[in-house]
C-alpha cells in the first residue's frame, strides 16, 4: 500500500506537485500517468524519501519510507537507472546492493535470470544499451523480493519484446498480491497493463480512475435506422446530442444504448443496429490532459 496525502513539493520558482492525494492498494497494477514534467518522478521520490515534501505526507506500508527497517526487502524502486558505477559489471553492481542490504547472493542470480541479463551479467555496465540498463534497474528493484514496487518509466528504451516482457512481469507481480505503481507519459504503454490509473497534469491530480471507467467516460452510442431523421428528432427531444455519421448511422451522446432503444421503440422507428462505442484510451487520456500539457511541440 502506498498513501500520498496532500503532497506538495515546491522548488524555488516552481510547483512540481500540488496537493496531490491518492492511494495505491496491493493486488493490481496502478499506472501513474501524466505528460512530461507533470510531477510523477517528484511524487515517487517523495514516497521513497529521496525528496522532502514541502507539505503533506507520503507513506509506504503505513510508514514513511525512511522508517522501514530493511527498505529493500519491503519496497523496490526504479527511479534513476543511471545511478550506478559504470566500471562495474551488472553482477557486481547487484551483488554490492545485495550485500549492503543483508540479502543473500543467491538473489542476484535469481533476478539476473528473471530479467534476462544472464548472458551479459559479467560485462561492464558502461557498455549497456538503454534497454539493458532498464533491465538491470528492474533487477535491482526486485532484488529484495519486495511487496511494493515503484517503477518510473520502466519501458523507456525497451524494444517491443522488452515492453511485452515488462507488461507480463508487472501483471505477475500484482497477481502475487504486490503493490505496483508504474509511471509513464504514454497511455499506449498502460493499455493491457494497468488496472487503475492515477493521472497528473501540471502537478495536480486530474484523475484516479479504474481503466474500465475511463474507457466508459468517453463512450457514445451508435444507432442505425432506415428512418434516421425521425429517430434523430426523437433522441433530441429526449435530451441527447445526435450527430449523423458518414455511413448513415447516428452517434448519440448523453443516453445509454438501452435508453436509445427505448426512445426508438416509443417513436415506432425500426432499429437495424445499436451498440455502445467506447473511446480509445489515448483519446480519453488526451481529453483529460489536453489542458495540462506544459511542454508542447511548437508552443511559444
Ligand atoms: N530538483 C528540481 N529543481 C527544480 N525543479 C524541479 C526539480 N525536479 C523537478 N523539477 C520540476 O518539477 C516539475 C515536475 O517534474 P517531474 O520530474 O516530477 O515530472 P515527471 O512527470 O516525472 O516528468 P517526466 O515524464 O518528464 O519525467 C517539472 O517542471 C520539473 O522541471
From TrEMBL:
This is ABC-2 type transport system ATP-binding protein. GO terms for molecular function: ATP binding; ATP hydrolysis activity. SMART domains: AAA. Residues 2-227 form the ABC transporter domain. Keywords: ATP-binding, Nucleotide-binding, Transport. It comes from Geodermatophilus saharensis. InterPro entries: AAA+_ATPase, ABC_transporter-like_ATP-bd, P-loop_NTPase. Belongs to the ABC transporter superfamily. It comes from the Bacteria. PROSITE patterns: ABC_TRANSPORTER_2 (PS50893). SUPFAM superfamilies: P-loop containing nucleoside triphosphate hydrolases (SSF52540). It holds the Pfam family ABC_tran.
Amino acid at each position: 500500500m502506498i498513501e500520498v496525502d496532500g503532497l506538495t513539493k515546491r522548488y524555488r520558482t516552481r510547483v512540481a506537485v500540488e496537493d496531490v492525494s491518492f492511494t495505491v492498494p496491493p493486488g493490481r497494477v496502478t499506472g501513474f500517468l501524466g505528460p512530461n514534467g507533470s510531477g510523477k518522478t517528484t511524487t515517487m521520490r517523495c514516497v521513497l524519501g529521496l525528496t522532502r515534501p514541502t507539505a503533506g505526507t507520503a507513506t509506504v506500508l503505513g510508514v514513511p519510507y525512511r522508517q522501514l527497517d530493511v527498505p529493500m526487502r519491503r519496497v523496490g524502486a526504479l527511479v534513476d537507472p543511471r545511478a550506478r558505477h559504470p566500471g562495474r559489471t551488472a553482477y557486481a553492481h547487484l551483488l554490492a546492493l545485495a550485500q549492503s542490504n543483508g540479502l543473500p547472493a543467491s538473489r542476484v542470480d535469481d533476478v539476473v535470470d528473471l530479467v534476462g541479463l544472464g548472458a551479459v551479467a559479467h560485462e561492464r555496465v558502461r557498455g549497456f544499451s538503454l534497454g539493458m540498463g532498464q533491465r538491470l534497474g528492474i533487477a535491482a528493484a526486485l532484488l529484495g523480493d519486495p511487496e511494493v514496487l515503484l517503477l518510473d518509466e520502466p519501458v523507456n528504451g525497451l524494444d517491443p519484446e522488452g515492453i511485452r516482457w515488462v507488461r507480463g512481469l508487472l501483471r505477475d507481480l500484482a497477481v502475487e498480491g504486490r503493490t505496483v505503481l508504474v509511471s509513464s507519459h504514454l497511455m499506449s504503454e498502460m493499455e493491457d497493463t494497468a488496472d487503475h490509473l492515477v493521472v497528473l497534469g501540471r502537478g495536480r491530480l486530474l484523475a484516479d480512475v479504474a481503466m474500465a471507467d475511463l474507457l466508459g467516460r468517453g463512450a457514445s452510442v451508435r444507432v442505425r435506422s432506415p428512418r434516421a431523421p425521425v429517430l434523430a428528432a426523437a433522441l433530441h427531444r429526449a435530451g441527447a446530442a445526435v450527430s449523423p455519421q458518414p455511413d448513415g448511422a447516428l452517434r448519440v451522446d448523453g443516453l445509454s444504448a438501452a435508453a436509445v432503444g427505448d426512445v426508438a421503440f416509443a417513436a415506432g422507428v425500426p432499429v437495424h443496429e445499436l451498440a455502445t462505442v467506447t473511446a480509445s484510451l489515448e483519446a480519453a487520456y488526451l481529453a483529460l490532459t489536453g489542458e495540462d500539457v506544459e511542454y508542447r511541440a511548437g508552443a511559444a
